[in-house]
Every structure is written in structure tokens, then in C-alpha cells.
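Sample intake sheet
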Amino acid sequence: SILEDIYSLPFNENGFEVIVIDDCSTDNTLDALNDYASKHSNMVVLHQEVNQRQGAARNRGIDVAKGEYIAFCDADDTIVADGVMNALNAVSETKADICYFDFEYETSDGAWQVFEMPKETRNTILTASDYLNIYYTCYYNAPWRNLYRTDFLRKTGVRFVEGVRWEDCDWTVKVYAQAKTIQFVDGVGYRYALGGESVSKQRSVKAMSNR
């Protein structure tokens, strides 16, 4: 599970926190999360009585986060501990506003392929203007492929649009535009699953409208 992946990070639990937003689940998800949290003192479980979609969940997580950096992770994806550690080590020195890493995505035949940043940007720092003019595409706007310095993120005042699908497209470009330093770091830090029941992977109009 994603929680098992997160707790595979080679950190003392006092060194990071895990915030899980239960967006009005209708099964035993909340009970399972609370049971997991009872075993991990650094895990925070928040429950929303009304389903408000991803935007509201992400906003709530940003509001309560205590760490120096924030990372988002969708429930059906996974993180890669070595890549995240590499990125955290890099920003501990540079204090970059945003830090990017490569990610793996699942192809239609079930194989995994690395989506790599251009080689010339490896371990370099760009301004927001340079990044947006040169590299910004639809594949670069996912909030989960970055680390964000928490105080920078809050100072931007940018909020995810709530109650809608594709809440990330509006948010990411506004956040990027306010960053003074955007750092690219070698290594895969995230695995994006093609299958599953997430909203972004639905192709049926009915399925999308019911979420």
C-alpha cells in the first residue's frame, strides 16, 4: 500500500509526518486508517464529512502540515524512497522553493517507463520564467512530482479549486510562476499507476460525473 511505501523511507518517524485525508469514504477506510495511525505517532488522519474532491483534501493537508517540505501522493500511486531521499538531501542545502525528480509511469501493456527530465537540467536550478518558457507541458503540471517548501507554498496564497475534477492544472502553473528557485534532481521519486479507479484515469463521462 502507499502507506507501506511511505514508511519504507529510511527516516526516524520523528523526522517526517504523514497526513491522510479521508474524503468521505463509505467503506471501512477510515477505521483502517485510524488503526494504522495508532501504530505510527507521526501519522495524522483527517476525515471530511462531505466529499469535496481532491482540491479540498490537498488544501487541508497544506493547512495542517508541519514539515519544512510538502509532497503530495495519490492513493493509487507509490513513492520511491531512494529518489525522495535524494531530493530531500539536495534541498536541505539549496532551500529551493520547488524540487523536481523523475517519475515512472505504467504503460498500456503493464510495463514501467521512466519519464526523464532533459539531461541538461540535471541537478541545476532554474527561475520560474526559464522553467515555464522551456519545459512546461501537461506532463509537468502534476502536483505529486515535486517537493514544495512549505513556507513558500503558503506565502503564494494559491489554493486548489475545490469540488472539481483536474484541480491541479490551475494550481500548479500559478505556484510555479511565483517560485524563485526550481531545482531538478536525478532519480525516480514517484510511480504513477495507469490502472485503478482514480478520477484522473476515468474515461466514462458517467464515471467522471459521479466522482
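Comment: Helices lie at 2-6, 29-37, 53-64, 81-94, 128-134, 150-156, 167-178, 205-209. Residues 81-94 form the longest helix (14 residues).
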